[in-house]
Amino acid sequence: MTSTPTDLTRTTTMTTAHSTTSAKATSDIPVHGTGAGASVILDHLRLGFDGKVAANVTLGIDPGEVVVFLGPSGCGKSTILRALAGLLTPMGGEATVNGKAITGNDAHCAMVFQEDALFPWRTALKNVQFPLGLRGVRGRESKQAATRYLEQVGLGSYLDHLPSHLSGGMRQRVQLARTLACEPQVMLMDEPFGALDAQTRLDMQQLLISVWEQTQMTILFVTHDVDEALLLADRVVLLTHRPATVADVITIDRPRDPKAQFEESYQLRRQSILEFLGHSPVGAH
Length: 285
Ligand SMILES: Nc1ncnc2c1ncn2[C@@H]1O[C@H](COP(=O)(O)OP(=O)(O)OP(=O)(O)O)[C@@H](O)[C@H]1O
Ligand SMILES: [Mg+2]
Description:
The chain is α/β, with parallel strands linked by helices. It folds into two domains: 7-108 and 185-279, P-loop containing nucleotide triphosphate hydrolases (Rossmann fold, 3-Layer(aba) Sandwich), CATH 3.40.50.300; 115-183, no CATH class. The chain contains eight helices and ten strands. The chain has a six-stranded mixed β-sheet with strand order 6-7-8-3-9-10, sandwiched between helices. The protein has a four-stranded antiparallel β-sheet with strand order 2-1-4-5. It starts with 6 loop residues before the first helix and ends in a 6-residue tail after the last helix. The site of magnesium ion has 3 residues, from α2.
């Protein structure tokens, strides 16, 4: 698949002294997708509340790319994802998916939250069937499709379990299956594994990698975990304190390769990002 770079994708620049690698134009990044993911453009996207700006971001994302946002608490990461999910109207600028401005009921972007967002009274199967119903898939077809999505996340034996009878990791898997059932072109993930224990988190990261390999979705992922960012991302976007602006964009040479973390270059990059997160200047809160 060929990428379709735009001027915006080329203008992601390094502006801090903490740069760990040169920001590569996305046109140079190998795109591994089969066409399932959408391009996302944030064009001077200005977001905020009560007239106060919380984010002002310009960034281009290729179809099938995994972009991870890292930044200080309260800088505006969730706000950016919420705008892309159509839950927040921009104060200015524009966000587009495959060239089309995002509207409130945009079906191309689906969100996975950190907190448990399942319907507690519905079984795993019925939770996953919910978005299928919204898409007009019903009856046996809906049951078969929901079963397939739950099998994809390793929960084929838990179809009839209520969320309260599942572990935190399993509930997150159901949420992932439910999001996959939306067949989004862009998956928005806001600290999806933040509440999980370390081992479950590693399992979920591997599951996400395998889902991405199968679907080639575009993924925008927010985390506070530098190792998670360096494992998953094609590019890591470092954001400043509120209002979030792009401080740095780091291209990961070997995304999704767990062995990379044993290399010296990985440790240097990790340290540099940690320093950035610890020392970025405080803006207006
Ligand atoms: N509904 C809202 N009304 C008013 N202000 C809000 C609202 N939601 C977020 N904010 C403010 O916008 C800023 C950015 O919030 P946001 O939740 O995007 O931060 P974040 O980077 O996701 O933080 P964290 O890492 O802690 O999750 C914060 O200062 C927050 O107080
Ligand atoms: Mg947040």
